[in-house]
From TrEMBL:
<dbReference type="GO" id="GO:0035556">
    <property type="term" value="P:intracellular signal transduction"/>
</dbReference>
<keyword id="KW-0723">Serine/threonine-protein kinase</keyword>
<dbReference type="GO" id="GO:0043065">
    <property type="term" value="P:positive regulation of apoptotic process"/>
</dbReference>
<keyword id="KW-0067">ATP-binding</keyword>
<keyword id="KW-0547">Nucleotide-binding</keyword>
<dbReference type="Pfam" id="PF00069">
    <property type="entry name" value="Pkinase"/>
</dbReference>
<dbReference type="GO" id="GO:0005524">
    <property type="term" value="F:ATP binding"/>
</dbReference>
<dbReference type="GO" id="GO:0005634">
    <property type="term" value="C:nucleus"/>
</dbReference>
<protein>
    <submittedName>
        <fullName>Death associated protein kinase 2</fullName>
    </submittedName>
</protein>
<dbReference type="InterPro" id="IPR000719">
    <property type="entry name" value="Prot_kinase_dom"/>
</dbReference>
<keyword id="KW-0808">Transferase</keyword>
<dbReference type="GO" id="GO:0005737">
    <property type="term" value="C:cytoplasm"/>
</dbReference>
<dbReference type="InterPro" id="IPR011009">
    <property type="entry name" value="Kinase-like_dom_sf"/>
</dbReference>
<keyword id="KW-0418">Kinase</keyword>
<dbReference type="InterPro" id="IPR008271">
    <property type="entry name" value="Ser/Thr_kinase_AS"/>
</dbReference>
<dbReference type="GO" id="GO:0004674">
    <property type="term" value="F:protein serine/threonine kinase activity"/>
</dbReference>
<feature type="domain" description="Protein kinase">
    <location>
        <begin position="1"/>
        <end position="178"/>
    </location>
</feature>
């Protein structure tokens, strides 16, 4: 197995292969919090929320959850392998995009976000590192939104008082419109 992506402080993503057919996947190992007093690891309800949200999603521009396993220390999400790298790195390497390429990338990102919002799901951590390419070696790579660790289902009348997300990418006004 090889490291594919570091998914936050308490998760790593490794490439894995299904023995029966050789199909490749990404295995996201999420460290479980071992006690209520500990601040290391992810609380069970947070892991369950991520899994529940991923199970509700089926979209071409969002990573697909295939299975979930658990051991003493980790919950392991078996996800679609997204091996094209981050969109940010692809753009930095390419230096310039045609209008067609830029339009296609923006369209795919917005289609994924629109799909989530239509289902009342807020990602809360959409940033360059969480926008990946399925395969960068094709003319117009498919965008995949990843890392739903901070995502929430938005319910009518429920207000979010906590601030979610990566500090560098949060709005300074404190407003989070859906």
């Amino acid at each position: 197995t090889t490291l594919v992506h570091r998914g936050g402080q308490f998760a790593i993503v490794k490439r894995c292969r299904e023995k029966s057919n050789g199909r490749e996947f990404a295995a996201k190992f999420i460290k479980k919090r071992q006690s209520m007093a500990s601040s290391r690891g992810v609380r069970r309800e947070e892991i369950e929320r991520e899994v529940d949200i991923l199970r509700q999603i089926r979209h071409a521009n969002i990573v697909t959850l295939h299975d979930v396993y658990e051991n003493r220390t980790d919950v392991v999400l078996i996800l679609e392998l997204v091996s094209g790298g981050e969109l940010f790195d692809f753009l930095a390497q390419k230096e310039s995009l045609s209008e067609e390429e830029a339009t296609q990338f923006i369209k795919q990102i917005l289609e994924g976000v629109n799909y989530l919002h239509a289902r009342k799901i807020a990602h809360f951590d959409l940033k360059p590192e969480n926008i990946m390419l399925l395969d960068k070696n094709v003319p117009l790579p498919r965008i995949k939104l990843i890392d739903f660790g901070l995502a929430h289902k938005i319910e009518a009348g429920v207000e979010f008082k906590n601030i979610f997300g990566t500090p560098e990418f949060l709005r300074h006004s404190g407003e989070f419109p859906l």
